[in-house]
Design goal:
The protein has 303 residues and is an alpha+beta fold. Helix content is 59%, strand content 10%. Strands 2-3-1-4 form a 4-stranded antiparallel beta sheet, with helices on one face. α2 runs antiparallel to α7.
């Protein structure tokens, strides 16, 4: 494992890429905690998925059982860590050891952020609709950035990532909405209708914002026209994607041209373009975003 990570950091570009991923994970988890603790919780609304379950359990401990929280610490992050522990096995079996370890670290960061970011004493907004819009965008963007960093914030994200890996057209946000339907169904028996409805609106906005950031869900078709050799091997070895290529000729110059076609995710596209430009700055590249794929196309979340 140590050797594998050493290989990943053996060049300045790879070190920069790893630091970028770490920044996304930390920043994403912090954004998520801000959206929940500073906007949603003070409005007495409830988050989605496993975060919502954790909030309900915190309410049971603090408000029903009257167990006080330590000064400056919220039970929310601790509970969130505990309810996620069974999902580590799913992450390990479906997505591999590395994803499981990075997810455990990410959940630890998420739990720390939710425990340490203070809950606002008074709501930041006067009306529920503004709160769920702003809170949903902030928290959903944060969760999406965590996934973009190559790991998961836990809970329904792990389930969603595992499903989207085996089902090419599956969306992490969609599984979140499905799980939330069950969670808020229970909430109907505990709270007034206004609380539940606005909490559900928040869940939908959160899921949509997450999908917008989660670029691994966006497939991209790339066609490369170049007169230089070497791009094929670089893409296969560094991006880990296959290519189809054939020989062509320029319409005006009649010069021999290599035509390469591949499919990548939007997240992998910048690396692909960087490789092409280093070998042939004059290469012509066509990108078609949102292409449907039928057949074998591996979903990746740890590159």
């Amino acid at each position: 494992m140590r050797q594998k990570w050493a290989e990943r950091l053996d060049t300045p570009e790879k070190k920069k890429h790893m630091l970028y991923r770490v920044a996304l994970v930390i920043g994403g988890n912090l954004l998520f905690a801000i959206g929940i603790n500073r906007i949603i919780t003070p409005m007495n609304l409830y988050s989605s998925g496993f975060t919502g379950i954790s909030m309900l359990l915190r309410m049971l401990i603090v408000d029903v059982l009257n167990i006080p929280e330590p000064a400056g610490i919220s039970y929310l992050g601790i509970i969130y860590w505990i309810v996620n522990m069974p999902l580590f096995y799913l992450a390990y079996k479906s997505l591999g050891k590395e994803f499981c370890i990075t997810t455990a670290v990410s959940i630890g960061i998420a739990s720390a952020c939710m425990s340490l970011v203070p809950v606002a004493k008074t709501p930041l907004f006067d009306d529920y609709l503004t709160a769920v819009l702003v809170g949903g965008i902030i928290s959903g963007t944060g969760a999406g950035l965590v996934l973009k960093g190559g790991t998961s914030g836990g809970g329904q994200d792990i389930i969603g990532v595992a499903m989207s890996k085996t089902h090419p057209n599956f969306s992490v946000g969609k599984i979140s909405i499905a799980i939330n339907t069950l969670v808020y169904g229970v909430c109907f028996f505990l709270f007034d209708i206004q609380t539940v409805v606005y909490s559900m609106i928040f869940a939908v906005i959160n899921g949509l914002a997450l999908d917008y950031q989660h670029t691994q869900n966006i497939n991209v078709q790339v066609m490369i026209f170049t007169k230089k050799e070497g791009i094929t091997n670089k893409v296969i070895n560094e991006v880990k994607r296959g290519l189809t290529y054939w020989n062509g000729a320029g319409g005006y110059t009649d010069e021999d041209t290599y035509i390469l076609m591949t499919m990548v995710t939007k997240y992998e596209l910048p690396r692909l373009i960087e490789i092409v430009k280093k070998i042939d700055p004059d290469a012509f590249v066509m990108v078609n975003e949102g292409t449907k794929i039928y057949g074998r196309f591996e979903k990746r979340f740890t590159e």
